[in-house]
Amino acid sequence: MRGILVGGVRVRLVISSVLGATFLLTLSLSAVSAAQGGAQIGASRPLIVQAVDESDLTTLKGNTHPLARPEFDLGTAPATLPMERMLLVLRRSPEQQAALKKLLDDQQDKQSPNYHKWLTPEQFGKQFGPTDSDLETITGWLQSHGFRVGSTKGRTVLEFSGSASQVQEAFHSVAGWTACDQCAGAAGFCDDL
Fold it and tell me: Considering the entire predicted model, what is its pTM?
C-alpha cells in the first residue's frame, strides 16, 4: 500500500503489485495541534509545512492484497493502461479521530447538546478533514505527476485518474495482470482499489 504521511493525516493509495512491493512516501510535517472544544476540532492550520521529499520512501508491511501472489502473475500491465477513479484516502490525526468518536457518541446520547445533530459532508470535511492548503499541496503533488484530480465533499478522499506508468513513477509501485479463481478465472488487472 502506498501512502503519504501528512502530519497526523495519512494519505494512502492502495496499489498492489504482483510481487507485493509497496512503499510510503513521507512528507516532512509539523505536529498536529491538540484538540480544543471537544468534538469541535477542525483542521484549523496546515499540517504540511515543508516541501515533499520524494527521496524519503518507506515500505509498508502487510498491505498487499492476498491475491497479489507470484502464482497469479501474468506480467506487468501496459504503461498506457488507464487507471480511472483511484482514491487517495486521507487519514485523520489521532486528535481528529478522538473528536470524531466523541461527536458520534454525543449524537447518540439524549443528554448531549449534539444529540441527533448530523453534519453535512461539507461540515464533516471542514471539521475532520485537512485544510484547504493541505488539500492544495496534495492535489498539486498528484498533478505534478500528471494525474487528473477530482474533488469530494467530505474531504476524506481525493479521486484521481492517470495511467499505470504514472502510478509506477509517482508511487514506486507496479500494476500487474493476474489470473485467479477469485477473479472468476478470467485474466485481468487486479488491484485493491
Answer: 0.69
Is the Cα dihedral 60, 62, 66, 72 positive or negative? positive
Burial of 2 (0-12, 13-18, 19+ CB in 10 A): buried
Q: What angle do CA 75, 76, 78 make, to 5 degrees?
A: 125
Asked if 20 contacts 68 with a C-beta cutoff of 8 angstroms, the reply is: yes
Length of the chain in residues, anyone?
A: 193
- How far apart, in whole angstroms, are the C-alpha atoms of residue 149 and residue 131? 17
pLDDT tens track for 103-155: 999 999 999 999 999 999 999 998 898 888 889 999 999 999 999 999 778 88
Residue-wise pLDDT for 75-94, tens only, equals 888 899 999 998 888 878 88
Distance between CA 161 and CA 82 in Å, rounded? Answer: 8
- Are 96 and 10 in contact by the 8 Å Cβ rule? The answer is no
For the chain, what are the domain ranges? 2-189
CB-based contacts of 101, cutoff 8 Å, min separation 6: none
